[in-house]
Amino acid sequence: MAGLEACADDYLTKPFNPAEPRARVQVGMRLLELRSALADQVKALEEALAQVEHLQGLLPICAWCKTVRDEANYWRQVEECVSVHSQATFTHTICPDCRETVLPGAR
Description:
By secondary structure, the protein is mainly alpha-helical. It has helices spanning 2-5, 19-51, 78-85, 96-102, and strands spanning 68-69, 75-76.
């Protein structure tokens, strides 16, 4: 008991069965493997969490011009609002439907 109270992880009493130390070492190896796997999973979760940026709640958006009202009650372009609240960046293009409307016959 004194050994355990002094922070020992395990102990053997004498006389002992020769198979017992082997079994205890295997238990220790399993514990180390589990601890390592858990540390890897925690690291992976922390990395995933660091990359997760998301908007939450209601986002008031103008049905006509598609600007959104921010938390300071200012109306901003959707791209600006999303960029401020996430790590997303935008690249602009034109969808096929708009291309036909804006640039009829273009390919």
